[in-house]
Amino acid sequence: MEKKRGGGCCVPSLRALRCYAVMFGLCLGLPSSAASSCKRKPVIFNFGDSNSDTGGWSAGLGIDVTLPNRRTFFHEATGWLCDERLTIDFLCESLNTSFLSPYLESLGPNFSNGANFAVSRATTIPRDQPFSLGIQLHQYLDLVSRISGHANLVGKDGFADALYTIDIGQNDLTAQFTNLPYLQVIGNIPIFIEEIRFAIWSIYQSGGKNFWVHNTGQLGCLPYILVTTTHDASDIDELGCLRSRNDAAREFNRLLQSLCEELRSKMKNATIVYVDIFAIKYDLIANYTIHGFENPLKACYNNGTVCEESSCHVSWDGIHYTEAANSFVASRILSTNYSTPPVTFNFFCNV
């Protein structure tokens, strides 16, 4: 149970007990079809931004990510921008494998089950700007070239059999809207998609054949965007989200899905799974009471003030999700209902 800052234990309210019960149920509710053992050791290489960054930003820039981040499960701050586990952590847990070590971690990283190249604030463009998708790709290719003689590094066959997860694009859209009108943002989306194409194709040419691609979430429902974006009533949808930001995310996702379809026809013996994260997160906002949450458009951690039970909240800090929301997202991913083609998450370690 969460502790007060003064050291004493909180007395749980009925509301708190209900929220913890929901969180516990989500953690245990991962579909058994996906949360099963693998025939061979699962290896995952992840590329992305803060939605899947497990310490890369903190390690790469030497920036402390302090409590209350990661207060719920490990009770220490080690780089996650969340109260605890991210969606990628729950996906790893479903395979009974360790959490992914950030590639930029210099103190005792273990890459025997893969590596996490994701870094907070990462974008697809410019390609050569730290820590863009292009830089993450270069880091991966460098890792591949140095596999011999390292006990804590995945073996050569592991790279070919690994799963390559990609979750990026949110920051590109956010940055574009800072200076450009809607139509220009829409016009630039194909540039982002081309960078993702380049990354997937480069990994494929280096021997990778299993890809798991997340589309971007409902940008217009993030509390930070709602608070900092000038808008009028005509731009608010039925959920209270910014219509223009969500429409831009939908266009990004449409082109990303088309890319995945195109690459399936061109990449022989490869599997490319496209996952509709937008639909999962939009459903969570639209039906938050059914799913056991409160105040979906309000951040738990805001201006130094932290809510009592983050397990009741969807948003942790206005941009990133809480552990409870990440658990919900992971459970929906593992259901295969949002995947094209609808294959289980453990397909790559059971073929």
TrEMBL record:
<feature type="signal peptide">
    <location>
        <begin position="1"/>
        <end position="35"/>
    </location>
</feature>
<dbReference type="GO" id="GO:0016787">
    <property type="term" value="F:hydrolase activity"/>
</dbReference>
<dbReference type="Pfam" id="PF00657">
    <property type="entry name" value="Lipase_GDSL"/>
</dbReference>
<keyword id="KW-0378">Hydrolase</keyword>
<keyword id="KW-0325">Glycoprotein</keyword>
<dbReference type="InterPro" id="IPR035669">
    <property type="entry name" value="SGNH_plant_lipase-like"/>
</dbReference>
<dbReference type="InterPro" id="IPR036514">
    <property type="entry name" value="SGNH_hydro_sf"/>
</dbReference>
<dbReference type="InterPro" id="IPR001087">
    <property type="entry name" value="GDSL"/>
</dbReference>
<keyword id="KW-0732">Signal</keyword>
<protein>
    <recommendedName>
        <fullName>GDSL esterase/lipase</fullName>
    </recommendedName>
</protein>
<comment type="similarity">
    <text>Belongs to the 'GDSL' lipolytic enzyme family.</text>
</comment>
